[in-house]
Write a structure and sequence with these properties.
Helices cover about 80% and strands about 0% of the residues. The chain contains 17 helices and no strands.
Length: about 350
Amino acid sequence: VILGTHYGNETDGRFERGIYVTSIASRCGSLLAVPIPPLLIKWTNITWRGVAGIASMTSLLGVVVFYLFLSDSPGKLHDPQNPIKTVPQSNISNSETVRLYQQTPTLYERAIIFSSSLWYTVKPSIRRILSSRVFWAVATAHSGASLVKGSDRILSTYYRDTSYGVVTESKASALSVFLSVGMLIGLFVGGKVFTAKVDNDEEDQRDYPRREMSSQLRPKNTIAFLYCLSICMCYSLAFLAMPFVRRLLHLPILVFILQIIASLGLGAGVAVQFYHIPAIVGSREFGKNRGLYAAYTDGIAALVSSVVWRVVGGAVEEGNPQGGGWAYGWAAVALLLVLCGTLMVSIIEIYVVVEGKKH
């Protein structure tokens, strides 16, 4: 939201590069959070309560840094995207707004002000988001990447069930970190390529009209390639879960190494779509409502992915986890990625290429 306020209307690629840098920082923080707590407990006398306290203090420090050093908009430290209104915008003047907040209201008046703020501020924003076909398209397409990002919760179980005892339960719980490592690699490589291609598109459009048509395919083809990578990795995980494949390869450790490689590729294939595309669409389409749009997009994507994981869990249980159950599950994930990828590529064509030309 802050990056969109500062750079959303710029055509020099600073907004895309900002998303690239901040998304990498976010994934690095998530990766550090995986090994550090167990190591602190193992090497020091700190208990779980102490580790939780350290994590809370770290979060508080991040909030303080945001509050002190980041401005809401260029030149303004505090500049809310969608200021609270207690009466219709057309019926209030600046002097009335100042007088409204200078008075000390009673408890009844506070309740009225709160209800009015919901009616005149929150309701229009929610209606703007939920009535937008763009929002529903992005949220649906975003569910594919969200589904993969959430798969780190079940990857450890997958490794354990398909390893013939090579991977114990205690070891498997730590191995799901490879999906996060894959996403970090995808952000380093794919995010940089995607950002560079968006910048090159804008330069090509200013140079030669003939090069404009070919340049329009660059971001679209990048996202299509990344989706193909993640879909292939899903089918690889499904293939490696089949009992006859594991018997054919003879070495369970070889199967496990191939599964780790596939997990890395799966994470790398959805990183750009998860972090970059919804933010770009929100900045160019929803303006002051981009914060609510981002929250609702993640919420709808989480809802869809939770339903899919429930179906996948049923397929795994029905097909026997040590048998071919996981093959059915990962095949279902791949099918959803095909549908979401098709929709996301269409969104890229409209909001990164066409809208990028307008900006």
